[in-house]
Structures are given as C-alpha cells and as structure tokens.
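Ticket #4471: structure export looks truncated?
Reporter: QA, pipeline team
Priority: medium

Steps to reproduce: submit the single chain below to the structure queue and open the exported record.
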Amino acid sequence: MSGNLMSGFMLRRLGMIMEPEPGNPQEVEGVLNPAAARGPDGELYLFPRLVAKGNYSRIGIARVRFNEAGDPAGVERLGIALEPEADYELHAGGGGCEDPRITFVEPLQCYMMTYTAFSAQGPRIAFAISEDLFHWRRLGLATFGVYHGVQIADVDNKDASVFPVAIPNPTGTLELAMLHRPLFPGTRPEETVCDPESREVDLDRESIWISYCSMALEGCEPCRLGPFSCHHRLATPVAPWERLKIGAGTPPMLTRHGWLIVYHGVSEIVNPSTPGHQFCYSAGVMVLSKDHPQVIRYRSPEPVLAPTLPEERNGIIANVVFPTGIDRRDDIGAPDRYDVYYGMADNRIGVARLDVPECLPPGGVADSPEAKV
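Actual output as written to the record:
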C-alpha cells in the first residue's frame, strides 16, 4: 500500500501504464504528464506529453486498456491531438504543447483542454476545445486582468485546469473558474531553494491561484475566452514536503466532501555527495468547498504519493511523481474510486488508485496568511 495512511486519502499504485516506444522519435525524451478524459463512447483516453529530441513536445492521444479486474493495464496509441503550430507554441529550433489537463465543461457541452504552450516568451497557458476528443480547435492563450499592477499575462504560467460547472466568484457571480500557477520571478524551486530553511513564503506570489472568466456560459460558442480576473490566492507552500513550490495537478472533481484535486509539492533532497541542488516532486490532496472553492476544507499534511519506485526515481528528471489526469470509476460502479495518472521521473506514466474516505480526516494542514515553513 503506497501513500501515507495518516492522511486519510491513500494512493495505491496500479503500475506503469505507458513508456517511450522503442524507435519512435516523437517519444525519445519521454512520455509523461497526461490528461485523462472519458469520451462520448465511454472509453477512457489519455493525452500524454510526447517529447522528441530537443524537448520538442506534442500532445498525443491513446486509448486505455483495462484488465479483467477493471484496472488500467496498458494503452493503444491513436496519434497526435496537438502538434506545435501556433506562434505561441513555437520558438527558434523547437516549441511545445505540454502537460495538458482536460475537463468536460457542462454548460458549454464540450471538452476544454488547458495546456502549457512554450514559445520564446516562455511557458503560457493555452486553450483548445473539442466535442469528441479527437478534433481540437485552439482558442489561443489565456488572458488575464491586472493584479495589483502586475500584468499576469506577461508572467510565466503553468498547471492550469478548469472546473466542469459554473463557479461563484468572490462576488457570487457564476463564471468559468480556472486553477493556475503563475511563476512569478523568484518562485521557482531553483530560486526558493536558496532561501534559509525557515524562510517565509511569499504569499502573494508563490501560490496556486483561482481566477474567473466572465462569459455567457449557457449556450455560448466559446470562440475566444474573455480575460480571467477576480484573482484569489488559493494555496501556498505550507508543509516541509512542499517547501519550495506547489502546483495544481489533476482537474477538480466533485466528491461528497467538495472539489478534489491531487496537486504536487517540491522539496529538496539533501545529498552531501552530490553537488548542486536535487529536488523531489511528491503528490498531495486538497478538498475545496463545493459552493465556495476559494475555501480549502482539507489538505493532506503528508504526501499521498512520493517517488520510491526505480521508474519514479530515475529518468529524465529524477525523483518525480507529477499527477495530471484523473478518472472517476463510474464505469465499474465505484464513484468513490478515482484512478490518478501521473508522470514518473518525466519519462513514463504511472497510475494509482485513490479511494475517497467516508469522512474527511482530522488534522489536515490549513492554509492561512500567516502560514510559514
């Protein structure tokens, strides 16, 4: 049994689901960090980041195969969902469509993909929509309202996903809500690791954010999304295992306790025999209030999944578990079971089973303006 029993949320590894295909130049530098979505046909599809030579990333599409026990057992590759084509996905000598998340947005009756577009300007959040998961139409880069004089659109940004239903913003207006992680200068692990062990977290900058987009959700043709505004700092690094950085992971899924997300946290591995800084990416659980997602109801004090397997400790980037895809197992009559798909050392894809407990466990770490590590 993997994960920390004290957290109340347990992740039990089910195995590796996908790895680079021998001889496939599109996957020579890794297969990782997939989105997961059920198609109109009820089948489960993964959208892995496929990395070619030079860190050139495409978003693939694959159908998940299940064994007799109902567990994921492998994939069937079906091709490419997004190839870097737009100017905001290209830079000199390369480009990238990276780390997708997919949500079926019920008011729009379509799938919405958020992904990291990598150009000469750096990583930015981009959108694409589909009605069938096979044909995708780009909506362009996310635009943002100004926050305290800062143009968030000019800041590197990653780890975005949207909610499947309209969410009340801080004023109570129902809007499209998005989780994201602006990478303000000074907030990368390579920078925060240089601070003392007892450093204070930069609350306004070093955080997972939730922002809202005002749009006519009912019967709307989402040709281009409006700016995201009403920015709210959702969560900052609190526990030692996430001391250097946190980022949103799987798209929000509604459970009996509220909106469930499996996120990642970064800490440093101290190894006197190895020069430089080494990082460890682990996974934790947050539960957000159903009616007011700005409120964190529960946050796991310890990781629910940490890199321990050889496939998680050795790869393109060592010591990484990076959750991005989630599938509720209604197909086998288990609505409290979620399969979480995650990147393994930036090279392979694993899957683990998460069972939602009947009651929220006590003692989860709360986020507060005074939180320090």
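Status: closed, not a bug. The export was complete when the record was re-opened. Leaving a note from the reviewer for reference: The chain has a mean pLDDT of 89.
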